[in-house]
């Protein structure tokens, strides 16, 4: 059996990570945007295989510590 899986971090403050999502527009791309050092976030994990989809599973930590998804 082969299972393909991935996890993604979603910040709950509404900002989009420009390294992961390229947005083309008429505004200055080098503008400085202030943001929190350690914003609240949720980690979403899911996988799929020939038998179907696994998840999604949501992981969050109120203490602001990093959470990893281990198999």
Automatic annotation (TrEMBL):
Q: Which domain of life is it from?
A: Eukaryota
Please give the Gene Ontology molecular function terms for this protein.
nucleic acid binding
Does the keyword Mitochondrion belong to this entry? Answer: no
The UniProt entry, under Gene3D superfamilies, shows:
Ribonuclease H-like superfamily/Ribonuclease H (3.30.420.10)
Membrane in keyword set: yes
Where is the signal peptide, in residue numbers? none
Q: Which UniProt keywords apply?
A: Membrane, Transmembrane, Transmembrane helix
> Which residue spans traverse the membrane?
42-59
PANTHER family recorded: HTH PSQ-TYPE DOMAIN-CONTAINING PROTEIN, TRANSPOSABLE ELEMENT TC3 TRANSPOSASE-LIKE PROTEIN
Q: What is this protein called?
A: Transposable element Tc3 transposase
């Amino acid at each position: 059996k082969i299972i393909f899986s991935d996890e993604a971090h979603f910040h709950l403050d509404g900002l989009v990570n420009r390294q992961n999502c390229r947005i083309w527009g008429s505004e200055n791309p080098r503008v400085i945007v202030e943001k929190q050092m350690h914003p609240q976030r949720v980690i979403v994990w899911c996988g799929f295989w020939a038998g179907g989809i696994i998840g999604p599973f949501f992981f969050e930590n109120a203490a602001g510590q990093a959470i990893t998804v281990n198999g």
